[in-house]
């Protein structure tokens, strides 16, 4: 899929998963993680994202209020 914003999105994307085919293509990333009951990397701090636990439970548990 061509995304006119891919380069712009890549500057903000904190996904550390090597070879992710959705990196920088936010609409595909959101749809993929939503279908798995997860959230994308950008919802997590860099430290938490590196665990690759994208579960909603992990988001709630690690969220700083």
Structure characterization notes:
The chain is mainly α and 65 residues long. The protein has a domain at 37-65. The chain is 40% helix and 0% strand. It is built from four helices and no strands. It has helices at residues 6-10, 26-35, 46-49, 56-62. It holds the Pfam family DUF6485. This is Cytosolic protein.
Topology:
Blueprint: H1 6-10, H2 26-35, H3 46-49, H4 56-62
Number of strands: 0
Poorly predicted regions: none
Mean pLDDT score: 92
Instruction: Please identify the structural class as seen in this structure.
Output: mainly alpha
The helix content is 40-55%
The description of the largest β-sheet is:
none
Radius of gyration from the alpha-carbon trace, in angstroms: 12 Å
Query: What proportion of the residues form beta strands (DSSP E)?
Result: under 5%
Order of helices and strands: HHHH
Morphology call: globular
Q: For the terminal residues, how far apart are their CA atoms?
A: 36 Å
Number of helices: 4
Explain briefly what this protein structure is:
This is Cytosolic protein. The chain is 40% helix and 0% strand.
């Amino acid at each position: 899929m061509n995304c006119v914003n891919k380069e712009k999105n890549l500057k903000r994307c904190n996904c550390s998963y090597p070879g992710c085919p959705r990196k920088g293509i936010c609409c595909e990333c959101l749809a993929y993680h939503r279908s798995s009951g997860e959230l994308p990397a950008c919802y997590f701090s860099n430290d938490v994202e590196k665990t690759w636990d994208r579960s909603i439970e992990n988001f709630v548990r690690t969220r700083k209020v």
